[in-house]
Specification:
This protein has about 900 residues and is of the alpha+beta class. About 15% of the residues lie in helices and about 25% in strands. The protein has an 8-stranded antiparallel β-sheet, covered by helices on one side. An 8-stranded parallel β-sheet has the order 26-25-24-23-19-18-17-27. It has a 6-stranded antiparallel β-sheet with strand order 37-38-39-45-41-42. The chain binds 2-acetamido-2-deoxy-beta-D-glucopyranose (9 copies).
């Protein structure tokens, strides 16, 4: 949901003084003096040194700081922490309260670590190398470190055509370009952006993959920054951090020489593993900006059911609010009693409900607006630079204040507002929360000297465009404190180094809270801006938890920082109904789910802004079924795009949802694994085929979980897709036949009609599928399982299943099942603490060459009538109908 298009670029280029600084001549920066290391001291896993400016200051964007402190810690055998600070000044550091850091293992022996820290003293430079191969992974080499009050630079050499992934949020290719490339991190309410500009979230982590291994580099810094990757004749390929504050705080992660997903687990050790989400949240979500009233909302629910398309969760955008004020309903358009009726209806049909909550609170002194009055009484607003009055912006409801998530009283305030407005007894009993605009977004152009005037000019809140319905219209007829950071000598509005912020004029404060706005603990937005959305996420997660203690939450946010996935999921923001946005969404979800550890992610299906088309929406419905978070959402001025609006789209959605629902237990198991140890829920092809260089750049196909290869059609009018199949057995998900022969290569999949999507099973998997889809996830859990055994080329396969009550953070009962297959025998073992309540209907063995003579269940021959064999497909089907409450084995001869 976003501001109207007309306002978007109203002030582009208005401020000449903000024209990008042209200073970034690499030669000039490399001529800076750098530092000398003195008093180098090592003790166990720690190395410390003093860094002293090594020559005449170059003062590129301020004054070079003379003395720095270096601290290197081998925190584990696979992680090195390198910190460079100014010992004479309390510089800003990302607070532990926002991103708790991992404990170091003080017994780590550097000698046995997988990566090593190496350095030269004069000039000081450092490198990280892989111990086993002596391969250098990161090296500041001939690029001096620059450390000035508002400018930090670190630059590393990279191999030519380096495979770098991460540094999001972005809309570029999953493997980042290595030529003339800048990634800017500064949260921004983006809409209709040129590719490559800064977006909502900030994740200064990258994974670098080589055929010899995969490692990671995480810079813990929330200040604005440009990260440049470039290749030039003189310097080769390099990656350069240009940061406008904070400190240099790096974690180097060894990853592994053989398994790329190891680095993902090591990154999770630093930022935390993703939260588990409720089972129901894997069902289909429907939303739009522009539902006019409660009758619309109710009709969408009944229309889905009439079209036999499973709808799990209905959402409502800001339309429900009175004058766009949070924690209100419009009494004429979305009266509370009617909205409660809708929520009751949904709940009584095992369906769910989610509403949007923005951070900005309407500034309405003396008007009896509770959320404002209570926040004012508790004094929880972000303050203007003079620290006396609230910082004012202009957002949807007009002039607004912003909750200060650093204020210790804000969590109570937020809990209380959630408790009251979302009360099951008197308010709207939501099942999940949707938080938006939390960059934080403000529509006020910089300088925002008169937010009242700007709110008037921009017509905020916008008037309704339809008349209210009859309020009695029938529905559902048929059915801790920080140390103070001294910024007194800094220019926080217009720092000397200009990051390539694309918001408005490019000023850091444009379209957001001012960089000099002050938090309760004295921190200012200059340092903490990139954390705002993530802190709102935590507060909202906590408020939802307070409403339903002990239950997992579904909170979907727009803005994120490293670590956000431990509490929330995210959608990719305001995309357009365009084919290239469908394509870009794959790199977007791969970044979030396989690098940044925010696996509950999806893009707005069929596109948010502009009008979708039948073919785009049909293809997007198919692709969207493989986003972990599957939600159709669009903008207020766009045509309706619920899946039932076109027959082909409805058919495509039904087909893809059938596949998705059958796989929900499989992906739920993957989420449990991710929560346990950080194993990614989605995998780019190279995670599974790390030696196959053909896979490194592929982001138009991906693995959903470990072994479901999705190869969608992403071009308009195309009915075929050139899919890459690495060297392994693959089986068609639908007809189960083996679609590929040893060798690896591009396969042209043809006749992909508008209602289907190529999905393959990678050999080596045993999949616990539900026998068929269902209209709700509740119904799905009453459906029998079928076990599909898809052997790898070496004749083996394995898999697992995790089940619990689907909602508790600490479930009382759990079921964990392991499946192993070799020598034509499937062995199922497990602890069945949580009753599955259903049967194993059958086992299907794929890739069977010859007609089997006999099949045994637990060593006993099964009757001939229970087996059937399809020679052309190579599928042996064994009907079982046994309660899924203990282990068993099935073998064939
Ligand atoms: C460590 O640094 C020294 C000094 O530059 C260099 O001679 C040595 O080769 C480096 N070791 C590795 C494994 O890179
Ligand atoms: C890449 O290097 C070229 C040549 O030095 C330079 O013109 C360009 O600005 C650099 N781009 C980035 C993003 O650093
Ligand atoms: C680098 O990219 C910038 C911005 O996209 C462009 O203006 C410039 O011409 C490019 N420079 C080179 C050397 O490719
Ligand atoms: C629901 O379906 C009916 C009948 O097709 C249609 O007239 C109506 O516009 C639909 N309403 C919504 C909100 O989808
Ligand atoms: C503090 O700053 C705000 C915003 O600039 C201004 O409206 C307010 O009057 C100032 N308060 C005082 C006491 O100076
Ligand atoms: C979308 O379609 C509607 C209804 O046909 C039309 O009014 C609107 O201008 C279209 N929007 C765009 C961006 O084409
Ligand atoms: C797809 O077909 C339509 C109708 O023939 C045409 O208007 C459109 O340009 C085609 N799109 C592409 C990308 O070729
Ligand atoms: C589309 O293709 C699928 C898979 O090949 C097939 O089962 C289905 O019948 C086709 N649908 C139409 C409408 O042709
Ligand atoms: C502003 C913007 O472009 N947002 C999203 C639009 O589309 C792609 C995928 O659908 C997203 O990755 C972008 O972030």
């Amino acid at each position: 949901m976003h501001l109207r298009t007309a306002l978007k670029f109203a002030v582009l280029g208005q401020f000449a003084f903000l024209v990008r600084a042209g200073v970034s001549d690499p030669a000039q920066l490399d001529a800076c003096p750098g530092y000398k290391a003195k008093n180098v001291f090592t003790l166990g896993p720690k190395l410390t040194a003093d860094l002293v400016l090594a020559g005449k200051a170059c003062n590129v964007y301020g004054t070079d700081i003379e003395h720095l402190k270096l601290e290197v810690t081998y925190e584990s055998s696979s992680r090195i922490h390198v910190k460079i600070t100014d010992p004479s000044d309390a510089r800003y550091e990302v607070p532990e309260s926002v991103l708790p850091r991992p404990q170091a293992n003080l017994f780590t022996s550097p000698h046995f670590a997988a990566i090593q820290f190496n350095y030269t003293t004069s000039p000081f430079s450092f490198s990280i190398f892989r111990a086993s191969t002596h391969e250098v992974l990161f090296s500041t080499g001939a690029h001096p470190i620059i450390f000035e009050p508002q400018y930090l630079r670190v630059k590393t050499d990279l191999p030519a055509n380096a495979n770098i992934y991460g540094l999001g949020e972005h809309t570029d290719t999953f493997r980042l370009p290595t030529h003339n490339y800048t990634r800017t991190l500064w949260s921004r309410d983006a809409y209709g952006v040129p590719q490559g500009t800064n977006l909502y979230g900030n994740h200064p982590i990258y994974f670098e993959h080589r055929t010899t291994g995969t490692h990671g580099v995480f810079l813990v810094n929330s200040n604005g920054m440009d990260i440049k990757i470039n290749d030039t004749e003189s310097t080769g390929t390099t990656l350069e951090y240009n940061v406008i504050g904070g400190i240099l705080d790096f974690y180097f992660l060894a990853g592994s020489e053989t398994d790329p997903t190891e680095v993902a687990r090591q990154y999770a050790d630093v930022v935390g593993t993703p939260a588990e989400v409720p089972y129901w949240s894997f069902g289909l979500h429907q939303c739009r900006f522009g539902y006019q009233n409660f009758v619309d909302v109710a009709n969408v629910i009944t229309n889905y059911s009439a079209a036999s398309i499973p709808l799990e969760t209905m959402w409502t955008d800001i339309d429900y609010m009175y004058k766009r004020r949070i924690f209100t309903v419009d009494p004429d358009y979305f009266p509370l009693n009617r909205m409660r009726e809708i929520v009751d209806y949904l709940h009584s049909h095992n369906q769910h409900f989610v509403l949007m909550t923005d951070p900005a609170v309407a500034y309405l002194p003396g008007e009896g607006y509770g959320p404002f009055d209570r926040g004012t009484a508790a004094d929880v607003w972000l303050k203007a630079a003079n620290n006396s009055s609230p910082f004012l912006g202009a957002v949807w409801p007009g002039v607004t204040v912003f909750p200060d998530w650093f204020n210790p009283k804000t969590q109570d305030y937020w809990n209380n507002e959630f408790e009251m407005f979302y009360s099951p007894d008197t308010g709207l009993d939501i099942d999940g929360a949707w938080i938006d605009m939390n960059e934080p977004s403000s529509f006020c152009n910089y300088p925002c000297t008169d937010p009242f005037e700007q709110a008037r000019e921009q017509d905020l809140p916008p008037a309704r465009t339809s008349s209210p319905p009859d309020p009695n219209t029938p529905i559902f007829e048929t059915t801790t404190l920080q140390k103070r950071v001294d910024h007194s000598h800094d220019d926080v509005q217009n720092p000397p180094y200009h990051i390539a912020n694309f918001a408005g004029s490019g000023a850091l404060s444009d379209k957001t809270a001012y960089t000099d706005a002050i938090h309760a603990n004295g921190l200012i937005e200059y340092d903490t801006h990139n954390l705002y959305g993530t802190m709102m996420s935590t507060a909202t997660h906590n408020a939802m938890l307070a409403r339903r203690p002990g239950q997992r939450t579904l909170v979907i946010t727009r803005s994120t920082f490293a670590g956000a996935g431990t509490r929330v999921g995210k959608w990719l923001g305001d995309n357009f109904s365009q084919w290239d946005h469908l394509r870009q969404s794959l790199s977007g979800i791969l970044g979030m789910a396989s690098v940044f550890h925010i696996p509950m992610v999806g893009a707005d299906i069929c596109g948010y802004a502009e009008n979708t088309t039948e073919t785009l929406c049909a293809r997007w419905a198919s692709v969207g079924a493989f986003y972990p978070f599957m939600r159709n959402h669009n903008a207020d001025t766009s045509i309706s795009q619920e899946f039932y609006r076109w027959p082909t789209v409805a058919e495509a959605a039904r087909n893809a949802l059938d596949i998705r629902y059958r796989l929900i237990d499989y992906i739920y198991t993957a989420f449990h694994q991710a929560h346990t140890d950080g194993t990614p829920v989605l995998n780019p092809l190279w995670y599974k085929f790390p030696k196959d260089a053909n896979t490194f750049g592929i982001d138009t196909q991906f693995f959903f979980g470990d072994s479901i290869l999705v190869s969608p059609v992403l071009e308009e009018n195309a009915t075929s897709v050139s899919a890459y199949y690495p060297d392994e057995a693959f089986y068609d998900f639908q007809d189960l036949s083996r679609t590929y022969v040893k060798g690896g290569g591009v396969v042209e999949l043809t006749d992909v009609n508008l209602t289907s999507i190529p999905v393959a099973i990678k050999g080596g998997a045993v999949l616990p599928l539900r026998e068929k889809g269902a209209m709700t996830t509740t119904q799905l859990r009453e459906t029998d399982f079928e076990i599909v055994v898809a052997p790898a080329l070496d004749g083996t396969a394995s898999g697992s299943l995790y089940l619990d009550d689907g909602i508790s953070i600490t479930p009382k009962t759990k079921t964990t099942v392991s499946f192993t297959y070799s020598h034509q025998k499937l062995t199922v073992k497990g602890t069945f603490g949580h009753p599955t309540g259903v049967d194993v209907a059958r086992v299907r063995f794929l890739g069977v060459q010859n007609a089997p003579r006999s099949v045994k269940l637990n060593g006993q021959a099964v009757s001939k009538s229970a087996m059937s064999f399809d020679l052309t497909k190579g599928v042996l089907d064994v009907s079982l109908k046994i309660p899924f409450s203990r282990g068993f084995s099935v073998e064939y001869q």
